[in-house]
Amino acid sequence: MPVFFLLVLILCSSCMEVPCNRSYQGPRTPDQGLLGYYSYPNTPCPVTRTTIRSNKRYGLDKVYIQVPDVPPCSNQPIRLDYYWQTRPGRHPAVLIWPISGGVDFCVEAFARLFTSEGSNCAVVHNRPVDLKAVKTAEQVETYFRQVVMDGRKVLDWLQDQPDVDPERIGELGLSLGGIKAALVAAVDHRVKAVVMGLAGGTIADIAVSSHERGLKRYIDRWQQVGVSRERIYQELLAAVQTDPVKLACYLDASRCLLFLAIFDQSVPTKCGNRLRQAIGGPMTIYLPTGHYSAVLFLPYAQLRSLAFLKHHLAKG
């Protein structure tokens, strides 16, 4: 057996899989107040779309959806990398949210795999946000609320595409993207299945306990001017309602797959477990890694995610 495949086999056998909670009773239905909070004007947004490349199997387009300016997002359009099937007909689609650093080879690897297996994929680029400009917990809430509205706008666009089956739309997100995927799927049930990689909550808990360099520096700067860690935590906990743990009851645990890293210090494992519990016990795969070393399991995560989404987005 080649050394590479032997290594993959050893790595995969070290993962721990916890099945979905058998006593799970189902999700709550979002009420009109919640849906109203994440509503937006039902008016067409200007869209530009440019084909970057195409071949016999799929094409790749750059798509820009112009939405109203919402601080701290600074009048940035929603940017998509849209992978589309060249064969005719309607196909499932997967909305993909990247890590905080942006679209990287991991995200592209998921998109290419899903596309090769017959799905369209819309990779949503992160809006540029300057952490130094974020002065209040309310601004953090504004950002995550805008994430949900952005996601819903992308879903609007996807379901209008002639090559997309609007009844077969899924989501996948990694790290910060996993948090975003959870938020959008909780509010908008056009998402039929969701994969969350290395996600967690609450936002307040992640902010004060993460070892992520940029976030840690941000918290340290506030402490240097006399704002205590406890005050930061309490203000975020009170202000940030668009939080994966707070919205988790609206997710269908039977249609969620969660990947957590046992030694994660960026999105601490305790935060991932808190999200898992709040959802109601979805199928969870624990990787014997930290946050960034989880990349060793990328091929495994790709195949498990593909199988999960194929099952839940199948016709009939």
Number of helix segments?
A: 11
Strand line-up in the sheet with most strands: 1-10-9-8-7-5-6-4-3-2
Q: H/E element string?
A: HEHEEEEHEHEHEHHHHEHEH
Task: Outline the low-pLDDT stretches.
Answer: 3-10
Please tell me what the overall shape is.
globular
Tell me how many strands there are. 10
CATH classification, class level: Alpha Beta
Instruction: Calculate the terminal CA-CA distance, rounded to whole Å.
Output: 40 Å
Strand content: 15-25%
In angstroms, what is the radius of gyration? 19 Å
For the structure shown, list the relevant keywords.
single chain, 316 residues, alpha/beta, Rossmann fold, ten-stranded mixed sheet, disordered N terminus
Characterise the protein shown here.
- It contains 11 helices and 10 strands.
- α4 packs across α5 and α6 runs antiparallel to α8.
- α5 links the parallel β7 and β8.
- The chain has a 10-stranded mixed sheet with strand order 1-10-9-8-7-5-6-4-3-2, with helices on both faces.
- With 316 residues, the chain is an alpha/beta fold.
Short description:
The chain has 316 residues and is of the alpha/beta class. The chain has helices at residues 3-13, 32-37, 105-116, 137-159, 176-187, 203-209, 213-224, 229-239, 244-247, 269-279, 298-312; strands spanning 16-18, 47-54, 58-65, 78-85, 91-97, 120-124, 164-174, 191-197, 256-261, 283-287. Helix 4 crosses helix 5.
Give the arrangement of secondary structure elements.
Blueprint: H1 3-13, E1 16-18, H2 32-37, E2 47-54, E3 58-65, E4 78-85, E5 91-97, H3 105-116, E6 120-124, H4 137-159, E7 164-174, H5 176-187, E8 191-197, H6 203-209, H7 213-224, H8 229-239, H9 244-247, E9 256-261, H10 269-279, E10 283-287, H11 298-312
Parallel strand pairs: 5-6, 5-7, 7-8, 8-9, 9-10
Antiparallel strand pairs: 1-10, 2-3, 3-4, 4-6
Helix pairs in contact: 4-5, 4-8, 6-8
